[in-house]
Design brief:
By secondary structure, this protein is of the alpha+beta class. Helix content is about 35%, strand content about 25%. The relative contact order is 0.21. This is ATP-binding protein.
Length: about 140
């Protein structure tokens, strides 16, 4: 999967209040965007991608809302790649790959198991001021 995120032709950004309804709304928005972009909801990567997205938004709502009243989801896609990021303004950067080494549990372990199982990548990117982060997931289509 050699597609650079900057080269992905389809993009959508959604900002929501950091509350439980954000999980449902972020998934519904993803489904609408995928359909609009011509990606079948029956593609084998879509259900796992929606689960990953839901887990990441849930984590932001549960753990970051005290410092981050909003959560932003960035959706992107191209012919061979689906990418999305969940951004909040909490400075904690979770160790994504601890799930791979057996020290992780819960939603983040599920995120990493699904991402790596699909041949995807995951990365945490800190905000320039160090007071927030985005977790980027990239999956091959």
């Amino acid at each position: 999967m050699s597609t650079r995120l900057e080269a992905l032709p389809y993009r959508h950004v959604l900002t929501l209040p950091s509350e439980p309804s954000a999980v449902r709304l972020s998934r519904q928005t993803a489904e609408r965007a995928l359909i609009e972009w011509g990606i079948s909801l029956r593609h084998p990567a879509v259900d796992p991608a929606l689960l990953i997205l839901g887990e990441l938004v849930t984590n932001s709502v549960r753990h970051a809302a005290v410092l981050s009243p909003q959560v932003t989801v960035i959706y992107a896609a191209g012919a061979d790649c689906l990418a999305f990021a969940v951004h909040d303004r909490h400075p904690y950067q979770p160790p994504l790959y601890s799930a791979v080494t057996g020290t992780g549990s819960g939603g983040l372990a599920t995120v990493m198991e699904l991402t790596l199982g699909l041949g995807g990548t995951a990365v945490v990117r800190a905000d320039a001021d160090g007071r927030g982060k985005s977790i980027w997931i990239t999956l091959p289509l």
